[in-house]
Design goal:
heterodimer, A: mainly alpha, two-stranded antiparallel sheet, 13 helices, 2% strand, B: 511 residues, alpha/beta, six-stranded mixed sheet, disordered N terminus
Chain lengths: 333, 511
């Protein structure tokens, strides 16, 4: 499968390259390094959230509350920054990560201890977290002039030729890569999603693994909340509305199986970049926002069809083996 | 407990009426396995035919052919003497065949009447479902079975015995002439069984042909007229059941020469390793005690539902026992999760290896090392090189055939997947290994290899608990055998006392 996956990722990479090439024929300067770096910078937050989503999806769960978590946490730290301008930025960022992780832990706890299906839990907390953002702010906005310059400027600061925002995404990509590939927790997420029963038999605590995945997802949403609020220089209740779907879409396009247990960090990053390129290119070549939405939607469905076909092929192998394994034995029932 | 007197037997002259259904020379071949080999069987109106055989004898395959799920590779099916093909499940229903399974295949959220008439509900003029007529017909059917179940309540609110009644009503509603009962008594109490048998007598009186599958001889002698015995996919005997003593049937079931087929190595058995004292579970088993010694193979035999797997799963920490004491190498231990068990050195190779054993999308080596990650990683970080080394060691030992250890397990054949599961558990370096039906679903040739391997493990000093439903395997491999019946110990037998008859008798509780 790893060979097959690699193929898919290569394919996705080629598609993105071809797209960039095609767009640059219609809009001069689209393919320049500067513009591409800009697209990457624009996509940084999506990459972080998509990786959060991916970790959860790998365990056969889903986190629909990532964007609402971002909105609440973003509001909280923006208000904190406005109220206490003297607090150092690092404290604010750590607070964001901590609040995000707590909200993620609530999801994780409900999924783990009460065994409620993740889609139901996070659909509920999605509205709760946004509602909390409203309650916290009373519906007020926190605007740029209320925020400190440090708060606003750090993500834009260029370090080694790239803004800190881009570096944040790169560091998170590396971190998640290491966590998933080189830690027991990472292996457990694949096992818990690939075959939960077998994972239990192998001594993996599936519920705990899911809990940790949700905490990680929440923490990344918290980090993303700071990046979002400072980048757009505003915090209000509806920020990142619907962004949870973009994060799921990036995973799906990147070949992460919604059924859990299959997928790679590289795939997710490419999936997010794919969406980023489309979002950046379509306005440039003069396509209306509504057509853009239709095009994005079509791409997502195509990706799902592609995934489903691949999974069906895999399913066939399993079924055949299963038939061979079961038939002679016959549950003597 | 022969209740034959309560159920007056119809005339014993069996074959003077033509069969309703006859199967001739049926073979069913699956990749690598011949599940049925040139089997013939006939079902007569007003007669109950008992289908007897060990697990894997081909009984369920036969049922699946009769209900149109499998199409046989060879042979013909005659209904009323006319050749018929059962192209799908509907064709079998149209021919008048219906099956009542051990776990009734019904819909919990639908009402009793809906379950009975699903697919052939009475309609009104406007082609909508005529609920009134459907409910009253359901009521009438249930009344004819002497039951007062309300047809409008949901199935999930019924007991298992009542569900059987619903299944039987369904069979009657489609005017089935051939009723297959697949272990219908497995979950029933004695009184419920008596009720069921009265209904079966009623079905007989209506001239229906009944195929009755059960492991319990006392019940079979009570209800069946004819019998057919299957062994390894072949029909090895049939006739009038009442005229055939049980010993003879057991001999047909077991058949082969038990002594030589199993390469059991004589091992000097050491001191006690695992002691289980008075293990009890809420519902599945009670007061089980056993001692497993070093190098010993302890067989656990019993019918399906006797609590064997449940006992072993509680030793492995999947379920918690209600009470009991566990001692490993002289130290009392408590096991609350599979991780505890793995750490203590007890591992369990589950029966359903696909579902419980492997994460198919993951590479072979990751599957193999999953329970051993604590040993292969350093400072919390996984070390791929260590993992590969460990996986390679057991892949070589088990002669695993794979392109590379990094390919997903799902791409391997069934036999090789099996090796990955076993390798994965051996890699944890256990002291006690529990094998649940280790040769289920593999062909005769591979069975011998698995048996050889089990013997080797015992010779290396591993203590083995082997659950098996196959008598030759249990008798050929075990040093001692614990027989379980309905959650209780039904006796512990030494190797010299192991005969098919004693074990079957203990497991079925028949004198």
């Amino acid at each position: 499968m790893s060979r097959l996956l690699r193929k898919r990722e290569t394919l996705l990479f080629i598609i993105i390259a071809v797209m960039i090439g095609a767009f640059s024929t219609r809009a001069d300067g689209f393919a320049t390094p500067g513009n591409l770096a800009g697209i990457f910078n624009d996509t940084s937050i999506l990459i972080i959230l998509a990786l959060a989503q991916m970790t959860v999806i790998l365990t056969k769960s889903i986190d629909l509350s990532v964007a609402a978590n971002l909105a609440f946490t973003g509001m909280a730290i923006a208000m904190l920054n406005a109220a206490h301008p003297d607090l150092p930025l690092i404290v604010l960022i750590l607070t964001a990560v901590l609040i995000g992780a707590c909200l993620g832990a609530i999801n994780g706890f409900l999924v783990w201890a009460l065994e409620i299906p993740p889609i139901v839990v996070t659909l509920g907390t999605l509205t709760i977290y946004r509602g909390m953002a409203f309650v916290l702010s009373g519906g007020e906005w926190v605007n740029a002039h209320q925020m400190t310059p440090t708060f606003l400027n750090v993500p834009r600061t260029v370090v080694l030729g790239m803004p800190v925002l881009s570096w944040a995404a790169i560091i998170i990509v590396a971190l998640i890569y290491v966590v998933l590939k080189y830690t027991q927790f990472g292996r457990s997420t694949y096992a818990a999603g690939g075959n939960p029963t077998a994972a239990v038999y192998a001594g993996v605590d599936v519920g705990w693994t899911k809990f940790l995945a949700f905490v990680l997802s929440g923490a990344l949403a918290g980090l993303a909340s700071y990046l979002w609020v400072s980048r757009y220089a505003v915090a209000y209740v509806d920020i990142a509305n619907g962004f949870e779907l973009d994060s799921v879409a990036a995973c799906v396009i990147g070949g992460i199986s919604i059924a859990g247990g299959v997928g790679s960090v590289l795939g997710t990053v490419l999936g997010a970049l794919f969406l980023g390129v489309i979002k950046n290119a379509l306005p440039v070549i003069g396509i209306s926002p509504f057509t853009q939405m239709a095009i994005s939607g079509t791409v997502i469905i195509l990706a799902v069809v592609f995934n489903a076909r691949r999974e069906r092929n895999r399913g066939r192998i399993i079924l055949r083996d299963k038939a061979a394994a079961e038939t002679p034995a016959e549950v003597a029932a | 407990m022969n209740n034959a007197l309560q159920h007056p037997v119809a005339s014993v002259a069996t074959n003077d009426v033509p069969a309703i259904l006859e199967m001739r020379g049926i073979s069913q071949i699956f990749p690598g396995v011949k599940a049925l080999d040139n089997v013939s069987i006939a079902l007569y109106p007003g007669k109950v035919t008992a289908l007897i055989g060990e697990n894997g004898a081909g009984k369920s395959t036969l049922v699946k052919i009769l209900t149109g799920i499998y199409r046989p590779n060879e042979g013909e099916i005659l209904v009323d003497g006319k050749p018929t093909t059962f192209a799908n499940a509907q064709a079998a229903i149209d021919a008048g065949v219906t099956a009542i399974h051990q776990e009734t295949v019904l819909f919990d959220e639908l009402t009793v009447a809906e379950n009975i008439f699903l697919g052939h509900a009475p309609r009104t003029r406007f082609r909508t479902i005529d609920w009134k007529l459907m409910n009253s017909r359901a009521k009438a059917l249930l009344t004819s079975l002497e039951s007062n179940i309300d047809p409008t309540i949901r199935l999930k609110d019924l007991s298992i015995a009542q569900r059987h009644l619903v299944a039987i009503s369904r069979a009657l509603s489609i005017e089935a002439r051939i009723v297959i009962m697949d272990e219908p008594t497995a979950a029933l109490s004695r009184k419920e069984i008596d009720d069921l048998f009265r209904i079966v007598e009623g079905l007989k009186a209506q001239g229906k042909a009944i195929l009755f599958i059960s492991h319990k001889f006392d019940e079979l002698y009570e209800i069946a007229d004819n019998f057919a015995v299957f062994r390894d996919g072949r029909a090895v005997g049939h006739g009038n059941l009442k005229a055939t003593p049980q010993d003879e049937i057991v001999r047909m079931m077991v058949g082969r020469d038990v002594e030589n087929a199993f390469p059991k190595i004589d091992v000097a058995i050491g001191g006690p390793v695992l002691q289980v004292e008075k293990y009890s579970h809420q519902t599945e088993f009670r007061d089980i005690s056993l001692t497993l010694r070093k190098g010993e193979i302890l067989g656990i035999y019993g019918l399906i539902g006797a609590g064997r797997s449940e006992l072993c799963q509680s030793l492995f920490g999947i379920t918690k026992p209600l009470s009991g004491k566990l001692t490993l190498n002289g130290r009392e231990i408590s096991i609350n999760s599979p991780l505890d068990a793995i750490r203590a050195g007890i591992v369990y190779v589950p029966e359903e290896r696909g579902r419980h054993g492997l994460a198919l999308p993951m590479p072979i080596y990751q599957n193999m090392t999953l329970p051993s990650l604590g040993r292969t990683s350093r400072k919390g970080f996984l070390k791929a090189a260590n993992e590969f080394a460990l996986a390679r060691k057991y892949a070589e030992r088990l002669d695993l055939r794979a392109a590379a250890l990094s390919v997903p397990v799902g791409t391997l054949s069934g036999g090789n997947q099996q090796k990955v599961v076993i390798g994965k558990w051996l890699a944890t370096m256990p002291k006690v290994i529990i094998l649940d039906e280790p040769t289920k679903g593999i062909d005769i040739g591979s069975k011998a290899a698995v048996h050889g391997f089990i013997s080797e493990l015992a010779a290396e000093g591993l203590s083995i608990i082997m659950i098996s439903s196959e008598l030759p395997e249990i008798i050929g491999m075990s040093d001692r055998v614990l027989v379980m019946k309905e959650g209780l110990s039904a006796g512990l037998f030494e190797r010299k006392d192991l005969t098919p008859e004693t074990l079957v008798r203990a497991a079925t509780g028949n004198a």
